[in-house]
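Worked example 2:
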Amino acid sequence: MNLQPRDWHFLALLLLFPLLVDAQEEFLVVSYNVENFLTPSNWQDSTEYTRPEDRITVAAFKEKASSISRALRLMAGRHSLGLIGLCEVDSRRVLNELVYQTPLKQGNYSILHHDSPDHRGIDVALLYQRNLLRLRNVRWLGVHLPSDTSIYPTRELLYASFLLPHADTLHVVQCHLPSQMTAQVNPVVVPAVLAQLQHVLDSVRSVSPQAKIVVMGDMNMPVTDPQLATLSDTNYENAKRQNKLLNWALFLPDSLTYPTYNYKGEWSRIDAFFLSPPLLDTTGWNCHPYHWNYAFLLEKDLEYGGNKPRRTRKGIAFRSGYSDHLPIGLLLRYR
């Protein structure tokens, strides 16, 4: 059989088509607090940081960007990194460097970022593969305290909705809740943030009762904290009946979860996923546990024993590392 050039082209497309379809059938969702991913202090457009530990040179910044990229790529392995939620970034420029100047540039990511009213300029962000997810809507939601019309100076909630392959929609809320110190000084702040989050969930469900929702990020409290029980449950049927989210870490068997943060030798799970029950139904896009070896992100804890995340700060000194948090991930799979 004598094939013409156009025939070879058609045959190549036929052989490639199954791979293209498979690439659209599942992807990884990641949430990662990247620990003070800040604009270098000697860039002309940088923030004038007052804390010594917030100052960073260009060389150190580029090393950290490379480390974040490496952590995400090694975590993903053979899976497509479809959606990445980030905490503790401070500008669009640092995200541009991460997305366009490291090997992450191969992922064709678009960036969702907005300068928040946080008193330190710390923001949340989302990176998404634009050839996989099509942005439908995005909003940044500031926090109002009771009887106060002004925006409280903390991180906003980042809400975005995406059109998925197979004509499904994914709703995402990226969070970085106020610190424990802030909560102690002003106890109404965290309840106000959770009330704002509940308002977002109610708004989405009022339009689409069976909406597929992922809430993720740094909760700055253990996933077992009673405050999180106001919007989530650990039991699928209870969550479905009460119109709540599923607390993913507590829903899974213990062997499938891991702590993400170490403070003075004590590990805790403060980075979390919360999922709407339709994401665990048997058809369409579904969430699945993700297993990976995060040992390369750890180092020996010489003071308290055991291991801890290898961070990029020791006091005010910069050192090679990743973050003081471990990233978390889940697989979204179509079936």
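The helical segments are 5-23, 58-76, 92-100, 180-185, 189-207, 236-242, 248-251. DSSP finds seven helices and 19 strands in the chain.
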